[in-house]
Design brief:
Layout (H helix, E strand, L loop, with lengths): L1 H22 L5 H17 L9 H23 L4 H22 L4
Length: 107
């Protein structure tokens, strides 16, 4: 149970980091909430995926894949948002993987 709470906390922190620059921009509230929810979900998934790769790399891959729906939707509204979304996906996913490996056994 503690591992799940740690994973939730790590995902929530990643979500807050990702939405921080979005709050000051004219972005629909639903998009901000959805982005935060995606990171909470990814925080629960990334730590428990066991691939034969370093955990930060697993996190980077899953972070990018997890943000793909946002990139597809955002492309229609604002094509220039794809790059930052991909960068945040890779960076925060790698961060989740690295933190999880330090705080959650078996990650």
């Amino acid at each position: 149970m503690t591992e799940i709470l740690i994973a939730l906390l790590i995902g929530a922190i990643a979500g807050l980091i990702d939405i921080a620059p979005m709050v000051k921009r004219p972005i629909p509230r639903e998009s901000i909430i959805a982005t935060f929810a995606q990171w909470v979900f990814l925080g629960l998934v990334i730590p428990f995926v066991s691939w034969p790769t370093p955990t930060w790399l697993t996190g980077a891959i899953l972070g990018l894949l997890g943000m793909a729906p946002s990139m597809i939707v955002a492309h229609k509204r604002n094509p220039s948002s794809i790059i930052p979304t991909a960068v945040f996906g890779v960076a925060l996913g790698a961060g989740i993987g690295a933190l999880a490996s330090m705080h959650i056994g078996g990650a």
